Amino acid sequence: MTNNDDSTYIHDPEAFREHAASETDEAETPRTTKAYLDSGTGPENQEFGRGGWLLVVALFFAFLVIPATILYLPHARPVIASLGLTFRDAYLVLPLVPALVLGSMAVWVAVGGRTE
User: Fold this and answer.
1) Where are the domains of the chain?
2) How far is CA 80 from CA 25, 69, 84, 85, 106, in A?
3) In contact, 70 and 91? CB cutoff 8 Å
4) Counting CB atoms within 10 angstroms of each CB, which of 19, 65, 90, 98 has the fewest?
5) What are the residue ranges of helices labelled H in 29-86?
6) Is the pTM of this model over 0.70?
7) What is the pLDDT of residues 54-101, one digit of tens each?
């Protein structure tokens, strides 16, 4: 690992691997957690599923539909008035809806992950 001159260090990765392999008798395995491997949720077993599509729909509404609705609000004065809302109320409530939906989905996923 060192050159003839003791003041200069030269790193040799192969010598380091040989030294580490000689200290452990185990074969080198990919580094990941045991829980990930044992749970059967590895990359080959994961599916997008219903929850994934619900997330896509919620993100679509949060990033496309609600902002477009907010831009259209000045032209929708009769609709807003028929709901009993003022412009201020509408501007506060519209962004709150996707925030609540995404927050409830996060809780749903977290609780679903604990049941395993």
Assistant:
1) 41-114
2) 72, 11, 7, 6, 30
3) yes
4) 19
5) 34-38, 49-60, 66-72, 77-82
6) no
7) 889 999 999 999 999 989 988 989 988 998 989 899 999 989 999 999
